[in-house]
Write a structure and sequence with these properties.
Layout (H helix, E strand, L loop, with lengths): L2 E7 L5 E7 L3 H10 L3 E7 L2 E4 L6 E4 L9 H16 L4 H9 L5 H15 L4 H6 L7 H13 L2 H57 L6 H36 L1 H13 L3 H22 L4 H9 L5 H15 L4 H5 L7 H13 L2 H57 L1
Antiparallel strand pairs: 1-2, 1-3, 4-5
């Protein structure tokens, strides 16, 4: 059924905008009149097909530049869960969501999902038509919830999962905001100092035609280069970034990049812990929702965002299909800590694998968070020390010729 955008006047005389589903524009106008508002303009939402794995998805041309935030998806999921747990039918619950959502793009998507469900399709199928908004994890958990008759509980878990991930990202952003701000401000100040202030001071030394100390010569050379060729430096940096992006798109480059992320000093262990936490959290949520182990591992494999970890999961799936336990199949990997293997083994033996996977995720998320906090607390004094050394070098380079001139006078 088509979806129409409308502009209308409500009984109080105010202009209202929204969307409505109807068989035709005439039917949409009549539907609006029946609801007590007078339609001024009604037009069908123009859509374009999104191909490459989402040929049936529809996205409004006017909304291509808009986006749906993860927080909005979590709020929508929570509201839908509450409505379903209260006994409201799915179509009615989706209809109730439309009046609560303020994001125009999300509102249109929910309207299309409602119409798809109203036509007899499952909610998971309707969600799968919008892969840019709903992830594989989201869709498969909903599918499992529909199959088990516990859709409201699954949606509640999805809302918890989304809110937890957003909270964790918010903490990381808050921890890194000040160091990043300090870095950019400090870099701009040093660039301005070297390219505009230093040349005016060192011009005096050039006019004296005397042999300058090595630090002063280096400072003048760096200052002249940055003042004349700073754009070359930015071009080189941009070229390096673009070359790295293109290299990462190749199979070999992607493998080398992902391996480096896990092996690089300091950051490698943190990236490994993040991967383990994401693995545990997602797999635990999928298993809790009734998704079979192999299917859940296939979903997790597609979202780990690391070729090395993905290959580890592929090997684990093969061994599980051959009769091994999850813990036994993961024990061979160097990227899974032994304590994680032991916890998973205890979970399998006790029948509490889902809860144990969530505990693994909790443990490693806290560990990563404390690691990030410790790094940022160390990063601030290191940055101040680094900038202090550069400023100190500039000051010494300027003062050395002055001291030498003073000695020549005396």
């Amino acid at each position: 059924m088509p979806v129409y955008e409308y502009t209308a006047i409500d009984p109080s005389g105010k202009n209202v905008n929204g969307i409505i589903d109807a068989d035709s524009a005439v039917a949409a106008r009549q539907k609006l009149r029946d609801s007590g508002i007078f339609p001024v303009g009604v037009k069908q939402t123009s859509t374009v097909a999104v191909r490459k794995g989402a040929s049936s998805a529809r996205v409004s041309v006017s909304n291509l530049l808009k986006r749906v935030k993860a927080g909005e998806i979590s709020v929508m999921t929570r509201q839908l869960s509450i409505l379903l747990s209260a006994g409201v039918p799915l179509v009615g619950a989706l209809d109730g969501l439309l009046s609560q959502i303020t994001n125009p793009l999300l509102k249109k998507i929910i309207a299309q999902i409602k119409e798809s469900v109203n036509e007899g399709n499952s909610l998971a199928f309707a969600l799968s038509r919008h892969p840019r908004i709903f992830s594989n994890v989201y869709i498969n958990m909903v599918r499992a919830g529909e199959a088990s008759g516990s859709l409201d509980l699954v949606l509640e878990r999805l809302a918890d999962l989304g809110e937890h991930q957003e909270t964790l990202k918010g903490r990381f952003r808050a921890a890194l905001a000040y160091p990043i701000f300090m870095f950019f401000i400090g870099s701009l100040v040093l660039f301005f100092l070297i390219t505009f202030i230093v040349p005016n001071i060192t011009q005096i030394f050039k006019e004296m035609h005397q042999v300058l100390p090595l630090p002063t010569v280096i400072l003048i050379g760096v200052s002249n280069f940055l003042k004349s060729f700073w754009w070359i430096l930015f071009l080189i940096m941009a070229a390096v970034v673009m070359a790295l992006k293109q290299f990462k798109k190749t199979p070999k480059g992607c493998y080398m990049w992902d391996k480096m992320k896990l092996r690089i000093p300091v950051f490698g262990s943190m990236n490994n812990k993040i991967a383990v936490a994401r693995f545990g959290r997602t797999l635990g949520s999928l298993l809790q929702s009734g998704v079979p182990l192999i299917s859940a591992l296939q979903i997790v494999r597609n979202i780990v965002n690391n070729v090395i970890i993905a290959r580890m999961i592929d090997d684990a799936m093969e061994e599980i299909q051959a009769g091994k336990s999850l813990a036994g199949s993961l024990a061979q990997s160097p990227w899974v800590p032994s304590i994680v293997v032991q916890m998973i083994s205890v979970g399998e033996q006790s029948g509490e694998l889902e809860a144990m996977l969530n505990k693994v995720a909790d443990t490693y998320e806290r560990d990563v968070e404390s690691h990030v906090m410790a790094m940022t607390s160390m990063l601030e004094p290191v940055m101040i020390l680094f900038m202090g050394l550069i400023v100190g070098f500039i000051v010494v380079s300027i003062l050395l010729p002055i001291f030498e001139m003073n000695q020549m006078i005396h």
